Amino acid sequence: MGLTSVITLSNISTGVQAATNLMVTPTRVVFEQRDRSAQVTLINRGSETGEFRISFIRQNMTENGSFEPVPEGEAGLFADKMVRFSPRQVKLPPGQSQVIRLMLRKPRDLADGEYRSHLLFQALPPAASSSIENIAKDSPAEGITVELIPIVGVSIPVIVRHGQLDSAVTLSAARVIPADGVNAAPAVAVTINRSGNGSAYGDFRATFTPDGGDPIVVAQVNGVAVYANIEERRFQMPLTLPTGVNLINGVFELAFIKPGSDPQTGTLARTRFVLN
Description:
By secondary structure, this protein is mainly beta. Helix content is 3%, strand content 53%.
């Protein structure tokens, strides 16, 4: 019996290795208006030959940034019906890679919107570990034995953008959370508010300017998404403070920046608050 665990690579920059020996890059695929093909590279970073299965799944983002499966039959804007990929299963020696090719074919009557599904890469257990003969051999003479074999996988979003799209972002409820028994380091929390029919995607930067001092970047997280199925996301990131700097008597600023843009010209949303 297989027990599947999925790690969604949706808020992380490219080239990320999951807790397993499976690496996928890039960690998101976006088909813009004229795009019809893309590719993803799967890498076996382990010390043994591995077999990997690729498939599409449907997930919705929750307000805390996690993902949950879309119930079967639930309506939504999904990309898997119009994106084909190959191969669907590969066997890779240690250190080897495989390119997965994706092809987009849009229906003629496709409505404007942003369509999203997640491409799932699963590392399959060795055949010996799931052998029925081995299970039977190790089982007691009477009774039922259930063996749970973990199947760990990672998924990446595949997004198709079509027609007229718009998205706007504002930030609210920003605050500093002090270090305590739960949080080993202080953190900043903020609510990302999204409107429109497209998702929001950007990099977060937190800056603290002490009274009479210069601005200090105290946190940065790249690749933060708010998908179109939710209107707000509660986001939190830990702070790294230089020696001798305390979060009192100064101005705290949070900026949500378009990836690869100058913070002065590419900021999608910004908020400030005073710390006393």
